[in-house]
Amino acid sequence: MSIDIRLSRARLGVALGVCVLAAALAAASAAGAELSVPAPPQQQPILLEGGTVHTVSGASIEAGRLLFAEGRILAVAGPDEALELPEGTQRVDLAGRHVYPGLISANTVLGLVEIDTVRGTVDVAETGVMNPNVRAEVAVNPASELFGVTRAAGILTALTVPQAGRDGLLGGRSALLRLDGWTWEDMTLQSGVGMHVFWPTERAAGFGAVGVDSPEARRRAAEARVDQLDEFFARARAYREARAADPALPRDLRLEALAPVLSREMPLVVHADELRQIEAALNFVERHALRLVLVGGYDAWRLTERLRELDAAVIVSSVHRLPLRRHEPFDTPFVLPLKLHEAGVPFAIARVATTFASAHERNLPFEAATAAAFGLPREEALRAITLYPAQIFGVDDRIGALAPGLQATLIVTDGDPLEITTQIERAWIDGREIDLASRHTRLYERYRQRYEGPAAVQEARP
After folding, report:
1. Angle formed at CA 259 by CA 255 and CA 264, multiple of 5 degrees
2. Residue 17: CA count within 13 A, CB half-sphere
3. What's the predicted TM-score (pTM) here?
């Protein structure tokens, strides 16, 4: 009898476990399904006129006009300049409004995570130490609710970054995404943007810590990890030379994935904050003659001369953070973009790429606004989330500014996008007008009806 009771309890436990799992998956599915339909290709030429056109790469144009067709900008002109309109052009009056390039988020895990606490929706990293063959874009979930929430803040393009797993060093290759599309293929603007390395730290605690106590032991452990990287890159170089001499040699996909990095076609994107980390990364790229983009870069202002010598760029990630050390002024992270700007080091502003932070990617403009509040010229702050990331990623011939020949990826606002009170009213990606509804707006409408009543809500709608 006792055996039967135990078996019955076991079966009951399994059944309850299955029910809980099913409920969790149902909740995750409901929370993670983007309901907005991806926009169709642009059907007719569109002329935006009457608003202030902020080209970012040049001067702003009061009462300007911007013409685009088939997804590309044809002309940007002032009110008195002659402009020949194609037949069937749709004219949009934007008097009192502002036109900006779509914002670019330069360090995210968008599409790779939905709900931070639901493990089944998190796919940001692979197991193992070296994963250079990982491609972030193929794991992207195009139906993520986070895309809609992020678009509503004017962010129309984002770099999604494969992370390093536990004890990992090489996370893989990032991809630049359009934040609208049916499939990951539709959304991928540029694949293989950078090869991401998460540099070992000597800190006693925190992300990336090597797990030993004495400073000397931590230093040796970090150096041993760098030796691993050196050996792996040396193997990749030897493999490339051997394959060039004898193409019949067996292929190694991991070593082969490093070929564009070794040839300097693809930058090595190093995630590091501390001075010793950054120094070690600079020495590494010098030894291997690589291109460098630094992400994080908390102490980068201490090494600006070396960064300039190596023509390295810094993606500040992020401005909204606490000082690393107790003795540092509270505004140390706030003035980092200003110091890089004054030193002539190319930079962009981004947020941290964590599973928790991905739900708050919409706050990117306010990171740039804080840098502006602490001395960075406002025009530079705007470029740090538009033109400069496009230049760093090598796509400034497509996005990042408003100029003839570039893709028509832009936003219309009622004010400065760095201001919290500004509303993003319309948006286009490659000339396709995007639905700015999101989970947030749907919840707003739902509970507005609860408190004001359906009739009042319907009457208030334009």
Report:
1. 145
2. 6
3. 0.89
In angstroms, rounded to a whole number, what is the distance separating the alpha carbons of residues 249 and 251? 6
279-328 confidence digits (pLDDT tens): 999 999 999 999 999 999 999 999 999 999 999 999 999 999 999 999 99
Topology alike, domains 38-102+400-462 and 137-394: no
Terminal CA-to-CA distance of the chain, rounded, Å? Answer: 70
Q: Please give the single-letter amino acid code of residue 88.
A: G
Domain ranges for the chain: 38-102+400-462, 137-394
Q: Is 146:186 a contact under the CB 8 Å cutoff?
A: no
Phi, psi of 413 (to 5 degrees): -130, 170
Between CA 105 and CA 158 the distance in angstroms is 5
DSSP assignment of 317-350: E-SSS--SSTTS-TTTTTSHHHHHHHHT--EEEE
Q: How many residues does this entry show for the chain? A: 462
pLDDT tens, residue by residue, 240-263: 999 999 999 999 999 999 999 999
Q: Which of the four CATH numbers 3.40.50.150, 3.30.1360.170, 1.10.10.10, 3.20.20.140 does domain 137-394 have?
A: 3.20.20.140
Enter the DSSP assignment of 201: -
What would the two tokens of residue 247 be? 């193409």
